[in-house]
Amino acid sequence: MSKEKTKGLTSSRKRAIRANLTGYAFIMPNLIGYTVFVFIPVIFSFVMSVMSWDGSTRPMEFVGLQNFVDIFGDRVFRGSLVHTLSYALMTVLPTLVLALLLAVLLNSKIKGVAIFRTAFYFPYIASIVAVGAVWNMLFQPDFGPVNEFLKFIGITNPPRWVVDKDWAMVAVSLVSIWKYMGYYMIVYLAALQGISNSLYEAAGIDGANGWQKLVYVTIPMLTPTTFFVMIMLTIQCFKVFDLVYVMTGGGPGNATKTLVNFIYEKAFTTWEFGPASAAAIILFVIVLIITLIQFRGEKKWSKDL
User: How far is it, in rounded angstroms, from Cα 65 to Cα 62?
Assistant: First the structure.
């Protein structure tokens, strides 16, 4: 090989190495942050799930699977699991449907559409503490605006919302739907603008009305987006903490205590890091299983379409 070719290969290799180093330099801060604040704590949670430790100077004690046995025998944990599932069932589908309908409505050329889009998106960026505090005042059972309106339309004995164990989770779910549907509306809007108008024109030539275009054109074309939204909403619902903590604190009693609230109390109230880590691992497995089921369902759905 000639000296010129050797020099050219060396120079090309140096440029490739320099380009790789530049790329690594850009991702390194994020990689370091992810490693320190996510990866290492996750690994430590797996370790802590088989240990007994209260966070003091007392050394950790290996207990094997005893933490998991204790967790499944804990009535409060089982209740938290049921509450989390109930919250997900009451939240995922309504949020998805409302986000889709809003996106379809606001994808048309109507006057002031930008204002409406901003108005529906605003709750998502609002402070969760402010949102919880304001809605608690709106749901105030004796003289809150919500119950005053219900009395005005003839409901003489309206729900007591966040102070009633039967209605507290419903109130939290309603606020969650209101807060997050604007974000997923934006996701659907982006997907809608990628659908070719020729599909709607062809459907119109075949005699399809607006509803038929929605069912047979829009919804099938939004399948990947719907799958993404469903996955994100499911994960979001299973890790809900802040909204419940602000609005009800897990009460009344334990009526709205979710898995993450249970984990928080175990870890930072009673300082039982072992059971808290075991509960976190169980939550991880539950979300993983549900996600895998949704992946499989999405593949089958896509084939049928």
Answer: 9
